[in-house]
Backbone:
């Protein structure tokens, strides 16, 4: 699936000139742009209403529903970018992996990958496998106007962790057993997942997404040496595969303070920072030439307006000298977050940073 000519995939001038994309490119902005990971869904009552009785993975395959859910936080909060409503396991489900998202648990895989023969579950992803994504993004870009749409995918390591463990894990013992004990199988698994992930991102970009984020949610379980040797090559392959489209590429992981420089080296234009590392220190670790995204602790939103503003000011102060900064939480919006707190936070950041 090769890139189409630039004039067919490039966002409109208004989208290109948005505060979000300008910050991604480390250009001057009228205000610090804001969006929130997991803003589409979970905490919004209007989301719970439209999702009622619809399983998570099914909801991701309904273009009109995806469009509505993606637009809800843009309407309510006035964020500077929409994020496509989906889940990181959607491309795996689309190629036939037997999995489901269990409420209160997360993705559960029926037949975990533990041997080379198990790799047969992972065939290539084609655009026809996720035609609903193309349709939904077409609907969204027509509605969003000058607001950019962020596409996303799970990074190879995080997808591999789910596939090998069979579900969420705190220790990643089975995944690491393969990584250490059968490095050749591990490399082949991540390489195959890199191809699937890249194909999924290409579908989103070609349909109209104007930036993409790669979520390596569980990469914080790795040492820098293990990440560099056993994970970075696959993530770099994903970023390189979409480099020709010219859209900003964001890389985010949880607990990855020791990996920030390496995650930037994988090919990201923007490095997402969780709440554990101040942004000025993160900039020192990442090095020049990258914008940063983050990084208010999402639990601060439960502490009241004064506390939220105090902690937000700390984030903005730490970001004062960055080449480019996109305000976000240091992880996703928590399900019981008061939506009004998010709306107030967007307004506060915009007001405090107006140029």
Residues:
């Amino acid at each position: 699936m090769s890139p189409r000519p630039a004039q067919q995939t490039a966002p409109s001038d208004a989208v290109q000139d948005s505060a979000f994309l300008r910050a991604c490119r480390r250009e001057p902005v009228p205000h610090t742009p804001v969006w929130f990971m997991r803003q589409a869904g979970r905490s919004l009552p209007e989301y719970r209403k439209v999702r009622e009785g619809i399983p998570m993975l099914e909801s991701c395959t309904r273009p009109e529903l995806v469009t509505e859910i993606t637009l809800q936080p843009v309407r309510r909060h006035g964020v500077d970018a929409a994020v496509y409503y989906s889940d990181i396991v959607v491309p795996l489900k689309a190629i036939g992996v037997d999995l489901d998202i269990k409420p209160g648990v997360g993705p559960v895989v029926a037949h975990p990958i533990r041997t080379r023969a198990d790799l047969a579950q992972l065939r290539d992803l084609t655009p026809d496998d996720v035609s609903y994504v193309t349709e939904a993004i077409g609907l969204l870009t027509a509605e969003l106007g000058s607001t950019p749409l962020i596409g996303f995918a799970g990074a190879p390591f995080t997808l591999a962790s789910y596939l090998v463990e069979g579900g969420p894990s705190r220790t990643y013992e089975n995944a690491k057993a393969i990584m250490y004990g059968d490095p050749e199988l591990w490399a082949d698994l991540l390489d195959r997942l890199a191809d699937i992930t890249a194909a999924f991102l290409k579908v989103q970009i070609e349909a109209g997404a104007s930036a993409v984020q790669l979520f390596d949610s569980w990469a914080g379980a790795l040492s820098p040496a293990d990440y560099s040797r056993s994970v970075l090559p696959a993530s770099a392959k994903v970023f390189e595969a979409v480099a020709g489209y010219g859209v900003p590429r964001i890389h985010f992981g949880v607990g990855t303070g020791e990996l920030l420089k390496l995650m930037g080296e994988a090919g990201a234009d923007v490095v997402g920072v969780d709440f554990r590392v101040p942004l000025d220190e993160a900039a020192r670790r990442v090095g020049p030439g990258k914008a940063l995204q983050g990084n208010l602790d999402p639990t601060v939103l439960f502490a009241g307006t004064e506390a939220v503003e105090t902690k937000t000011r700390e984030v903005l102060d730490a970001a004062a000298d960055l080449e480019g900064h996109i305000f976000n939480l240091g992880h996703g919006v928590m399900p019981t977050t008061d939506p009004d707190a998010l709306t107030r936070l967007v307004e506060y950041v915009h007001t405090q940073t107006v140029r």
